[in-house]
Amino acid sequence: MRDNIGLPKSILDFSNSFSLSRKNVPELNIKFLKAKYIHSNGQDLVKIDGSETLFRLYETASGIQSVTPLLVLLEHLSRNTEQAQSFIIEEPELNLYPTAQQGLLNWLVEKCTQGENDLTITTHSPYILSHLNLLLYAYQVAEKHPDRKEAVAAIVPEASWINSKEFACYQVENGGVQSLVDEELGLIDNNELDGLSGDAADAFDNLIRLSKGFATK
């Protein structure tokens, strides 16, 4: 704004919301990134686990830069329990390793689905889809075996479990929408998950056949 750079209004709005939210959330532990956000003296700082150095946010890895403002804003918004909120997040997996994507998804489900809140995510990441299945299945196992609830929670945090009755997953393709959820199992269809990486797997199989002198299919 100072230099009259023509950024999209959505980015400016987000930046403004982040600037306001960090006043109410001056510190935030981000366990899945092994980092802690600190807002002090007008600066956005990050402390990495195992280091005493405070880095400016813009000096950190791209994944931390992408996710930290989002998490601070969500932490601020999630504290508003007076009215239901709808959260729409586009491709949260950007710049993150698969394990960090899973940690972020746990966080999003916990913070954005409390009470009557709802969460919509767009994604191209098979890791996100696979982890959604884990959160769905954890709920199912605990519901079917209440006596094992604590054991399930030790594997998957209870705050991130997803009730399949409150879940939908769609693939947008060729101008249409197709559900990816197996209605009987209440999980994302494994065939659809496999299909996301199927082309790469087929190509690898064909290379193996070529290497061994077999015809490709």
List the defining traits of the structure above.
4-stranded antiparallel sheet; 44% helix; Rossmann fold; alpha+beta
CA-based shape: globular
CATH architecture descriptor name:
3-Layer(aba) Sandwich
Unreliable stretches covering 5 or more consecutive residues: none
Give the fraction of residues assigned to helices.
Answer: 40-55%
Class of secondary structure makeup: alpha+beta
Q: How many beta strands in the DSSP annotation?
A: 10
Q: Rg, please?
A: 21 Å
Q: Give the strand order, joined by hyphens, for the main sheet.
A: 1-2-3-4
Mean pLDDT: 89
Q: What is the count of distinct domains?
A: 1
From the N-terminal CA to the C-terminal CA, the straight-line distance is 57 Å
**Largest sheet entry:** 4 strands, antiparallel
Q: In DSSP terms, counting alpha (H) and pi (I) runs of 4 or more, how many helices? A: 7
The SSE string, one letter per element, is HEEEEHEHEHHEEEEHH
CATH class: Alpha Beta
Query: Proportion of β residues?
Result: 15-25%
Structure description:
- The chain is of the alpha+beta class and 217 residues long.
- The chain has one domain: Rossmann fold, CATH 3.40.50.
- 44% of the residues lie in helices and 19% in strands.
- The protein has seven helices and ten strands.
- The strands form four sheets. Strands 1-2-3-4 form a four-stranded antiparallel β-sheet, with helices on one face. Strands 5-6 form a two-stranded parallel sheet.
- Strand 5, helix 3 and strand 6 form a beta-alpha-beta unit.
- Helix 3 packs across helix 4.
- The longest helix has 19 residues.
- The protein is globular.
- The termini are far apart.
